Amino acid sequence: MNKENSLIVRVIFVAVIACLPLSLENCSTESIEFEQFAFNGSTMGTTYHIIIAGRPIDAQERSAIATSVDSVLLDFNRILSTYEDQSEISLFNRNKSIHPIPVSQKLLRVVRAGQDFCEASNGAFDITVMPIVNFFGFGFEPGENRFPTVDEIDSWLQLTGCDKLEIGDSVLTKSDPRITIDLSAIAKGDGSDYIADFLLEMGHKNIFVEIGGEVVTHGHNKEGELWKIGIDRPTIGGAPGADLQHVIQLTDKAIASSGDYRNYREVEGKRISHSIDPRTGSPIAHNLASVSVIANTCLLADGLSTSVMVMGLEEGLEWLEDRDDVEGLLITREADGSFKEYMTSGFKTYIYD
Ligand code: ADP
Ligand code: MG
Predict the structure, then answer these.
(1) Which contiguous run of DSSP H or E holds residue 270?
(2) Pocket of ligand 1, candidates 82, 90, 210, 276: which has the most ligand atoms within 8 Å of its Cβ, to mutate?
(3) pTM for the full model?
(4) Which of 18, 44, 219, 320 has the least CB density, counted as fewest CB within 10 Å?
(5) Cα(81)–Cα(6) distance, integer angstroms
């Protein structure tokens, strides 16, 4: 037996002894967190990475977990993906009725969250932003290689806003047949929560779930420590993880980031961001380069990070500071190319580096 195996046996032995006087329910397995199962895949046009730490998981169980995670994510995409022609959201977007349109509870739940973000952010976050997202080439249409005319912007402003959609118990009603919705800003965060809950329900207590940079953590890593997560420095075109602004540590919390540095296009020689200000009908044009938000759910972190990205530094920082359930890190790009960081008062307690 090699040294590592003998250590595993010893740790199991200690854990079993420690559990004997307790009822099975109270018998904590926290002391045997020494193994991990990590796997990854693709979903929602990006990648996911999942780590489960704790008891050993054999090959058969590993494959069953990975298969069920993939099928949950496929289901998710079949509802929320605007890139899938036959997804529920795409069918809804093509439906030109102004009468109540029946939708699934799964779609309704995310739309309701989107509408809540819209109201809380005074329209900085807005799921009816789809026509503008499409024009600039960040949606399911190829996009134009020019800036819009004033008339085009005016016509979008008729079709965007929190009041353009009415939510019923099992229906959504468009105020105009041309209304289309985009849940991409919160789909990854919500998906991360969904997969984390799915794994918790299966009995895994120590988990790290990340979809496209939006992360949910529970319990501890295989060293029995808090989960460590890198926050990228927002260098234009920088590869994820190549240059970190900070490493933070988390447990039972989520973190999501929005940024202008990875998903952008060049139009008429100008770099345009995929974060759109629905109130002006234009891509954001300020020096906020990235926002990371820590919250109890990844859906909340994701919705807030996009909202703050649209609001900009002053309004966004104040808005986050006013909430007592979240913390945020905002990084600006200065005229000389350097970065400057701003954080809410409690953010530093999460910094590890
Ligand atoms: P980030 O990680 O930068 O937040 P996301 O993919 O989560 O990126 O969100 C960006 C996407 O959200 C855009 O591509 C677009 O589909 C959508 N979006 C852009 N602006 C807004 C907005 N103001 N409100 C809601 N959704 C938006
Ligand atoms: Mg987002």
Answers:
(1) strand 270-273
(2) 276
(3) 0.89
(4) 18
(5) 48
The beta strand positions in 85-213, using DSSP E, are 101-102, 165-167, 171-174, 206-211
Kind plus residue range of the DSSP H or E element containing 229: strand 227-232
pLDDT digits (tens, 9 = 90+) for 252-269: 999 999 998 778 889 998
- Of the bound ligands, which one is closest to the alpha carbon of residue 111? 1
How many whole angstroms separate alpha carbon 70 and alpha carbon 65? 9
Coil, strand or helix: which one is 342? strand
313-348 pLDDT, tens digit each:
999 999 999 999 999 999 999 999 999 999 999 999
Return the structure tokens found at 136: 């600039």
Give the burial string for 234-252 (b: 16+ CB within 10 Å, else e). Answer: bbeeeeeeeeebbebbbee
Distance in Å from the first CA to the final CA of the chain: 37
Q: Which of 192, 275, 280 to mutate to test the pocket of ligand 1 (most atoms within 8 A of CB)?
A: 275
| Ligand 1: residue whose CA is nearest its atom 19 | 275
- CATH number for the region 88-182 comes to 1.10.3980.10
Q: Which residue has the tokens 């309704």?
A: 108
Which pLDDT score is estimated for 238? 81
Which residues partner with 264 through β-bridges? 273
**In sequence order, what DSSP letters do the residues of 26-50 get, joined into one string?**
T---GGG--EEEEEEEEETTEEEEE
* Torsion sign over Cα 60, 61, 65, 68: positive
* Among the listed residues 326, 266, 246, 260, the one whose alpha carbon sits nearest the alpha carbon of residue 288: 260
- Beta carbons within 10 angstroms of residue 97's beta carbon: 10
Beta-strand runs (E) in 14-144: 35-43, 46-54, 101-102
8 Å CB contact between 207 and 198? no
Output the residue whose Cα is nearest ligand 1's atom 4.
258
Q: Which of these, 140, 172, 174, lies nearest to 158 by C-alpha position?
A: 174
* Residue written as token pair 């900070």: 246
Euclidean distance between CA atoms 163 and 185, whole angstroms = 19
Q: Is 90 helix (H, G, I), strand (E, B) or coil?
A: helix
